[in-house]
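Entry: DNA ligase (ATP)
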Amino acid sequence: MVDPMIPMEPVSRENLFQSEDWLYQVKWDGVRMLAYLEGAEIELFNRKQRRRTENYPEVVQAAATLSCSSAILDGEIVVMNQGKADFFQVLKRELISNRKKLSTLMRKIPVHYMVFDILSHNGESLMDQPLEERLQVLSHLIPTDSQEVIHRCESFDDGFGLWRFTGEKAWEGVVMKKRQGVYRPARKDPSWQKVKHFQKLTATMVGVFYSGSQVHSLLLGIKDEGRWIYIGRVGSGLKEEERRLLTDALSSLKREDPSVINPPTGRNPGVIWVEPILRVDVRYLEWTPQGTLRSPTVVGFRLPES
């Protein structure tokens, strides 16, 4: 019976720095996952210690081929879409409740397990060993490109180069880690530090939050498989002129019911639902585990698609 731990977390910082005492890894936009291997038994648990073994059968099958009697791996489950990790898609695998749909989702949304640390190997805890030594053990267990599903995250000496590369790819960011750092579960530790790029997407206004006499913020949605999905609310970046124009246009855009299949729960006084017509360019920091945007800002508006 596995007693899952809470994984170690990085602290956030605004700017990356370069040092020989640190190494640099890609920060993947996915679901944090610990894999526990004990003989033929393999279990997966997320950062909240919730069992997810049945959600990712392909990861379990791939882990069974690793050459060890036991191990604890730390990494991120990701879904790659057009060359970048797609958090919105991996959430569908993480939150699936209908097991009958799993085989279909496995074909439509294949996952990868990006492993960046090893906490135990063949019965020996490695958490008190320096990161560099743990990564040496991991490199023997998972050689580069030896697996289709499980991948070992590469570590780089050139932090600025990796920052530029991840920015060009529109990836989430970089995690910098002290080479001599030990693993401290269940805490945020400054020996791991994350620096994130802001992301961009084009969403659609599906509603507005009305306060006083004008539009205060926008409710956003995106279309997925023909259905509108609510992804959060944004007020930052809206100019006063834009608020006035949207307020004046409300009468022609208003609708009775939400177009999204997952509107915010509870009472929503001040919310007015609108036809999903106006597109909005948004900058945001990351997706939340609930599938909404964190720290979104309006960048601009686009004409409706014809």
